[in-house]
Amino acid sequence: MSGTGAKRGRPPAFDRATALEAATRLFWEHGYEATSVGELTRVMGIKPGSLYAAFGDKKSLFEEVVHAYGRSPAGAFAGAALREEPTAREAFGRILREAAAFYPGPGHPPGCLTISAATNVTVQDAGVAAFLRDLRNANLAAFEARLETARREGELPATADPRALAAYFAAVIQGMSQRARDGATAAELTETAELALAAWPRTGT
């Protein structure tokens, strides 16, 4: 008796991971600005009070979504390739080919959440755009660092520009994300990936 009385008035429990997954899909598909708290609570299966209690405000929820996405296969493949591949060329080849497979892949909205979720935000939400921009710039810095190492070790010619090359590959990857959202297939994006790799600077003759 006393046990049931202690539970009276408590909100129903929810699976945080499942709720976060539902929020991720909504933000990924519609973007930050177009996603309302009402839509979030509907797909997450919780009431607004529970959302604020569990995640904070909409911005805090979005940041948690993005960090969780960054640990998922769809968000972590670039960093994994940079760490695991023995050469920079193999790393960037893997990144481009996996982007071609992931971005239009089934089971999730097309493209990359970090690239597309805050392309248009109001002035009051400029911090959200800056948050994603900082993450993308951190990826760009990781690209440049890997390419700088490749030049220092002789994998790239001494005349290669790691900064420009990193910016080039980042631009290709961001474009592939948008092309996936526009309906490009994995085969089409793979062609783009191979064309991008053809620009890799060669050493020697």
UniProtKB/TrEMBL annotation:
Keywords: DNA-binding, Transcription, Transcription regulation. GO terms for molecular function: DNA binding. Residues 36-55 bind DNA. This is TetR family transcriptional regulator. The keyword DNA-binding applies. The keyword Nucleotide-binding does not apply. InterPro entries: Homeodomain-like_sf, HTH_TetR, Tet_transcr_reg_TetR-rel_C_sf, TetR_C. It holds the Pfam family TetR_N. Residues 13-73 form the HTH tetR-type domain.
